[in-house]
């Protein structure tokens, strides 16, 4: 199975400041069509997860443009350009390149 | 408005069975891949099972193979998960998830709690 490793485990952030979460996969998530099968999800306390990013860098409809995804075949980054209070919660990366699809362990974002 | 509503969770003894259901509305259910994803209390997310639009392509995580069965009824806009021979480690919130490629969107239900305990 592809192992997804996220860092940091916990990320204290300041409102209005940028934030960045890293994710690494144990093998490349690039398929022959050139797409990178990496997604990012956000889960607020007590809520269901919500997808933010798919195919490495494409935003889900309705997701604010302060969220962006980037990376190579095995190293990925989710960036928040200016953190807002509603951004707290846990962020997960997930690969949908090979079955079983696997999630990273999560990064908890909290306000300093 | 898109909705996914799960039901069927509850308390079951080890070795017992449960059948989860998920009713979809507000999107074209028959065109979507559907999944069950679970989250143990205080833990991260784990993909459980995945089914293509016509039900002909199915995947399971190794830990549930042979014991869980995912199925769907497109006419009823419904997804199911039959869970047999349940073990303690199956205790989790089970989320129904839709993958709507026509809208580049992804939808999650509110989840249903399954507790396996004697």
Write a structural description.
The complex is a heterodimer of chains A (112) and B (118). Chain A is 0% helix and 47% strand. With 112 residues, chain A is an all-beta fold. In chain A, strands 2, 4, 5, 6, 9, 10 and 11 form a seven-stranded mixed beta sheet that branches. A four-stranded antiparallel beta sheet of chain A has the order 1-3-8-7, with no helix packed on it. The termini of chain A are far apart. With 118 residues, chain B is mainly beta. Helices cover 0% and strands 53% of the residues of chain B. Chain B has strands at 3-7, 10-12, 18-25, 33-39, 45-51, 58-60, 68-73, 78-83, 92-100, 105-108, 112-116. The interface between A and B is medium-sized, with 21 and 19 residues.
Mind sketching the topology for me?
The complex is a heterodimer of chains A (112) and B (118).
Chain A lengths: L3 E4 L2 E4 L5 E7 L12 E6 L6 E5 L3 E2 L7 E5 L3 E6 L8 E7 L6 E2 L3 E5 L1
Parallel strand pairs in A: 2-11
Antiparallel strand pairs in A: 1-3, 3-8, 4-5, 4-9, 5-6, 7-8, 9-10, 9-11
Chain B lengths: L2 E5 L2 E3 L5 E8 L7 E7 L5 E7 L6 E3 L7 E6 L4 E6 L8 E9 L4 E4 L3 E5 L2
Parallel strand pairs in B: 2-11
Antiparallel strand pairs in B: 1-3, 3-8, 4-5, 4-9, 5-6, 7-8, 9-10, 9-11
